[in-house]
From TrEMBL:
Belongs to the CpcE/RpcE/PecE family. The keyword Acyltransferase does not apply. InterPro entries: ARM-like, ARM-type_fold, PBS_lyase_HEAT. Coiled coil: none annotated. Keywords: Antenna complex, Lyase, Phycobilisome. It comes from the Bacteria. PANTHER family: DEOXYHYPUSINE HYDROXYLASE, PBS LYASE HEAT-LIKE PROTEIN. This is HEAT repeat domain-containing protein.
Length: 223
């Protein structure tokens, strides 16, 4: 199937038909980032939240000099919480370490759990130790999904000192929390991690037990 030209994509992005605009935006995956950026920008303020969400994700994948400031602006100013959450997630994909501070700030300031969840996940993706205090505090959140994100992110940033803090979730009633714990411990080599993982190998939920086995193997291979 022939890749449409930039002009064809640009024209299709102006279609009154949402499906046409979505197909056009999706076709940008074959286009170089610098060429794709002006076309992505055309639909960042589209009337369709679904299309805007796609465009924001595209900014995270198509890395250019403009991607970072655009995503931070959306994160900090957009009135729609879903769009702000998309921007937080895209900053994690972008991999720009400058995003750590705005993501930490939005985690403190935003009132919506979905935005804070996306920020926590992206802080883990960026693997920067500056986020550890925020992520440790997130362990005390009333939102279980935020606890899950914080546990996973602390593993991603390899915060060994958080092992004692996250081990309390080994007895969580939520198997997804226990699974995230088992996965995180695989990035946190310590005697306590190994002991906990051997215990979690016997977990009543298969996904948790399998995650524990994989993490134990990872720690053993890492020496």
């Amino acid at each position: 199937m022939a890749v449409p030209s930039l002009q064809e994509i640009s024209t299709q992005l102006e279609s009154s038909n949402l499906r046409d605009r979505m197909v056009a935006l999706a076709s940008l995956r074959h286009i170089a980032a610098e060429d794709a950026l002006p076309l992505i920008k055309k639909v960042l303020d589209d009337e369709s939240l679904q299309l805007r969400s796609m465009a924001i994700f595209a900014l995270g994948v198509k890395q250019t000099e403009e991607s970072y400031p655009i995503l931070v602006r959306i994160l900090e100013t957009d009135p729609d919480y879903g769009i702000r959450a998309d921007a937080a997630g895209a900053l994690g994909y972008l991999g720009d370490i400058r995003a750590v501070e705005p993501l930490m700030r939005i985690f403190y300031e935003d009132t919506d759990w979905l935005v804070r969840f996306s920020a926590a996940v992206s802080l883990g993706n960026l693997k920067d130790s500056r986020a550890r205090e925020i992520l440790r505090k997130a362990l005390d959140s009333e939102e279980v999904i935020l606890q899950q994100a914080a546990i996973a992110a602390l593993g991603e940033i390899k915060d060994i000192e958080s092992v004692d803090l996250i081990l309390r979730f080994a007895q969580s009633d939520d198997w997804l929390v226990r699974q995230r714990l088992a996965e995180a411990l695989g990035h946190l080599p310590s005697p306590k991690s190994i002991s906990a993982l051997k215990y979690m190998e016997k977990d009543s939920h298969n996904h948790v037990a399998e995650a524990a086995r994989i993490s134990l193997k990872r720690l053993e291979e890492a020496g």
